[in-house]
Structure formats: C-alpha cells, structure tokens
Amino acid sequence: MEDLQTLQTELLDRIQGAGDLAALEEIRVATLGKKGRVSLMMRELGQMTPEEKKELGPRLNTLKTTLNAAIAARREALENALLNERLQSEKVDITLPTAPQPEGGIHPITQVIDEVTEIFTEMGFSVAEGPDIEEDFYNFTALNIPEEHPARQMHDTFYLPEDANGKRKVLRTHTSPVQIRTMMAGEPPFRIIAPGRTYRCDSDATHTPMFHQVEALLIDRNIHMGHLKWCIEEFARRFFEVGDIKIRFRPSYFPFTEPSAEVDIGCAFKGDEIAIGEGNDWLEIMGCGMVHPRVMENVGLDPNDYQGFAFGMGLDRIAMLKWGIPDLRDFFAADLRWLKHYGFTALDLPSLSTQGVK
Ligand code: PHE
C-alpha cells in the first residue's frame, strides 16, 4: 500500500494544476473512477485482516472525501474562469454609434391625406382628381359664381396671364371644381372625395398661399342634410380619436350650396399649443351644404331627381388640430428639424388600421 499522505499531496497538487475541465475529469477518473487508484485501494481492503481494515478504512475514506472536495472546488474555479472569459469576449460596447436610421419621413400632410382617404373609402367614397391650374368655368362659373359676382372676392385668387383667347386660368381656390368635373364626366350616383392643393393670396399663422383641402361630393336620390351631418360627425370622431369631440354647425353662405354651413371643432388654444376635446375655442375646419339646384342644372342633372351634399375641408387645419401643430407656415418651410419632429415613419399605418374603430 502506498503511503497515503504522499499520495494525497501528489493528487491534490495535480487537481490544483488541472488547466481545464477535461484535464480535471481525467484526474478524477484515474483516481476515483471505477478503476481509479483510490478505488482499487479501497477494493484491496477486502483481502485485509480486520485490524488492517480498521486502520486503513477510515484513512482511505478521508482521502476520498478530501479529493472529492478538492475536485469540486477546482471545477467551480474553472467554470467561473470560463464564464468570465465569455462575459469579457461577448460584452457589448453601448457607447458605439447605433446602426444608421433611415433618413426622411412622411410629411404630416401626406399622413393626413392617407388617414382621411382611409376613413372615406371605408364609407364607400372613391378618390377623384382635378388640375391645380384650373379653368375659370370649373372654379367659379359652373359653381354658380358668375363673373362680377361678389363671391369671387371671397377668394383671393391667383390669376394666370391671359391666353390667346383672352381667357385667364386660375390656381384653383378650392377643390370644389372637382365636383363639376366629376358630375360632367359620369352618371349619378356619385360618391367621391378629392384631396389636393389649393391656392389663395393670404398668409398668417393659420393661412398660407398654398394649402390643402379635401372635397367630398355625394349625389343620389333622397339625400338630405341628415346624411351630411352624420357623415361629418362620423368622420370627426374617427379622425380625431377623441371620445367627446365638440362639433358646431354654423349657418353660412356658399353660392354652390343651399343651405350652407361652416363646421367648427371645439378646442383650446394654450399659448403655443392647441388641444382638441377641451376648452372654449373653435377652429373652423370646413364649409358644407346641400348642392345648389343651379349647380345640378349646370352639369345637366335634374335637381328634382337627384340631390346631394358637398363639403370642403382644410387638411392642414385638421392636421394642426390632431397633432397640436401651432403654426401653419411651418408645414411648408422645409425645415428638417420640424419634419423630424412632426413627421411620421414610412411604416406608420393610418391610425384607423391599428385602432379597430367600429
Ligand atoms: N369650397 C368651399 C371653400 O373652399 C368649401 C365648400 C365645399 C363649401 C363644398 C360647401 C361645399 O371655402
């Protein structure tokens, strides 16, 4: 039998010196495994006399326990070293710059057109278009605004120079000419919206020379003011996503509708901000009314057969309201800082798609 004390010192040295988990396992098998040195020695106890057993047995047991403990301690040390190494090599330097973000975004006006279009197409309207440079006939005359009619002064019109026939085209002052183009091009019923640019010679915090409107026209049989009101209220509820939105219909005058009204949304002007659904201020967002019988006649429809309603809404206005943008002029200043702040990312869906409004 080897000298147990020397054996213990030698084995403990080797365990301590094991460079990795595999080497340690090798030592364990060679020592305490089935055919390991210490295991064999324990088996030899069987052939010994009771005195020898009594003397050697406890010492071998102590050796076994000491070695097991040393192996466990070494294993833990090696595993910790391995973990530390991984933590070192896999650490993330959070001070590094992030991956490049996409430049550019969706302008609030584009976003507003998408959202409005989504709401009205769901109600069964389709999208119609007309030119920005418009003939006097579509912009005024057919809409029951004859030449020299004082209503022409309501619009601070940009006129183009006379053409060869002595006629002056205009930058359309509203989207209403699309009503005429639509009705002249097809047969009723009509149910269209026409978003687009409009122009008037006017400029302050809530007016810019170029702005945006969306026109709506619905012509069918037995249409009345109740249809118009429902349509506008339903739109406002969905678009603004505000539960108790305040809407006000004020009697008004437009040559192409009778009766006519202007629609205001209740809001609060708080210094540099606007908030909807609270406060005692009003912001006008649209003009509306029942299509005037004379307009129906101008496009060859019999007002006794067909009726309809129309409205023209300021898209910039409703964008200002919805997102609390205080100054209209900033929309068109092409200031990248403003666009970054108020713009939308390309993958933003129109609010309704994600909102689940019924
Ligand atoms: N065209 C009108 C405007 O720009 C708005 C309007 C459209 C009013 C349709 C009634 C019907 O002020």
Task: Summarize the structure in words.
The protein is α+β, with helices and mostly antiparallel strands and 358 residues long. It folds into two domains: 4-90; 108-342, BirA Bifunctional Protein, domain 2 (2-Layer Sandwich), CATH 3.30.930. It is 41% helix and 22% strand. The protein is built from twelve helices and eleven strands. The strands form two sheets. Strands 1, 5, 6, 7, 8, 9, 10 and 11 form an eight-stranded mixed β-sheet that branches. A three-stranded antiparallel β-sheet has the order 2-4-3. A hairpin with a 2-residue loop joins strand 8 and strand 9 (273-276). Helix 1 runs parallel beside helix 4 (50-89), helix 2 packs antiparallel against helix 4 (50-89) and helix 5 crosses helix 10 (315-323). The longest helix is centred in the N-terminal third of the chain and has 40 residues, at 50-89. The chain is rod-shaped. The N and C termini lie far apart (91 Å). Mean pLDDT is 90; it is low at 354-358. Phenylalanine (PHE) binds next to strand 10 and strand 11.
Rg over CA atoms, rounded to whole Å, is 42 Å
Mean pLDDT: 90
Residue ranges: pLDDT <50 for 5 or more in a row? 354-358
By CATH reckoning, the class of the largest domain would read Alpha Beta
CATH topology of the largest domain: BirA Bifunctional Protein, domain 2
Strand count, sense and barrel status of the largest sheet are: 8 strands, mixed
What is this structure's SSE topology?
Elements: H1 4-17, H2 21-32, H3 37-44, H4 50-89, H5 108-122, E1 126-127, E2 133-134, H6 136-139, E3 159-162, E4 168-171, H7 177-185, E5 190-199, E6 210-220, H8 225-240, E7 247-254, E8 257-270, E9 273-276, E10 281-291, H9 293-298, E11 307-314, H10 315-323, H11 336-342, H12 351-355
Parallel strand pairs: 1-5
Antiparallel strand pairs: 2-4, 3-4, 5-6, 6-11, 7-8, 8-9, 8-10, 10-11
Helix pairs in contact: 1-4, 2-4, 5-10
Bound molecules: phenylalanine (PHE).
Residues 174, 176, 254, 257, 287-289, 310-312 line the site of phenylalanine (PHE).
